[in-house]
């Protein structure tokens, strides 16, 4: 028995991906099943929406000069992380099911690393936004006094930590030298690494709870103090709006991440006894939905952001209508009598002038 344990503890890098899946009892589909089609179809749909929503946020922040402040730079970086999450998850969906057995270990590690990097960056950006808002509200400022250099440094640190977290399993913290430590959810990952990653995200969650709780208590105290000089309606509305934002942020994080974090913890602690394979893909889809909820909470609740979205969509629709009008066939009427050309020519001139003005309005950003 001791010899068998010693044999499995040696590092043998010749094993392929299928070996690890068979070792932990995770079945690789030979043919496409209904469950595979449902998961892939739902996942790709969510990815498509995530990419479009976060791309819209990034375009709006870059085009509207009113958003060129630290908080919006962080929101733009969070949108970039969520957009990357959508692309990474789409890559996962296109390399799952029966395709898994054809992956090399390097390809498998890259597939997992993309997911880890994107989701870690998204969570780290959520924490950065929470800390920035705490600093702004406590100091009673409209925008943070953080310089662009510090904002860039913070963004670089977020991506550096995310990349390190994504590369750790492939570099050294895996189970290729200890097969008894293999995860059932991610067969090449170490169960101890999954416990560490889940606990780290739960710690981030509790830090966010503490930050937003302090913001709520502080603003409630300030509004109760200032309500002596303002109307009671404004005081109540301020508290209600703040409570909505707090519960939306925390509620979205709990709903989207808690099932996946609990699954990782159970898999790390119990291994095969956790039966995590039965629902781990659906938990991953729910976690990915957090990348869709983020632009809704942090961007669509901003009136200026909504106006910028409408402006972008109107420009896109107007350009599409102009292109369709240019491509549509035009019927040429026979020439009119010479005496009737005057009013017709004036009407055409007005139409052309209106079309030129509409195109110029499309390139003029309101309020920029």
UniProtKB/TrEMBL annotation:
One Gene Ontology MF term: lysophosphatidic acid receptor activity
Main location class: membrane
Keywords of this entry: Cell membrane, Disulfide bond, Endosome, G-protein coupled receptor, Glycoprotein, Membrane, Receptor, Transducer, Transmembrane, Transmembrane helix
Keyword presence, Disulfide bond: yes
Transmembrane stretches, start-end: 37-59, 71-89, 109-131, 151-173, 193-221, 242-266
UniProt topology in membrane: Multi-pass membrane protein
Compartments, record wording: Cell membrane; Cell surface; Endosome
InterPro entries the record matches: GPCR_Rhodpsn, GPCR_Rhodpsn_7TM, LPA_rcpt, LPA_rcpt_EDG2
Domain G-protein coupled receptors family 1 profile: 53-298
Domain of life, per lineage: Eukaryota
Stored Pfam families: 7tm_1 (PF00001)
Entry's Gene Ontology BP terms: angiogenesis; negative regulation of erythrocyte differentiation; thrombocyte differentiation
Gene Ontology CC annotation, any one: endosome
PANTHER family, alphabetized: G-PROTEIN COUPLED RECEPTOR
Family classification: Belongs to the G-protein coupled receptor 1 family.
Name recorded for this polypeptide: Lysophosphatidic acid receptor 2a isoform X2
Gene symbol of the encoding locus: lpar2a
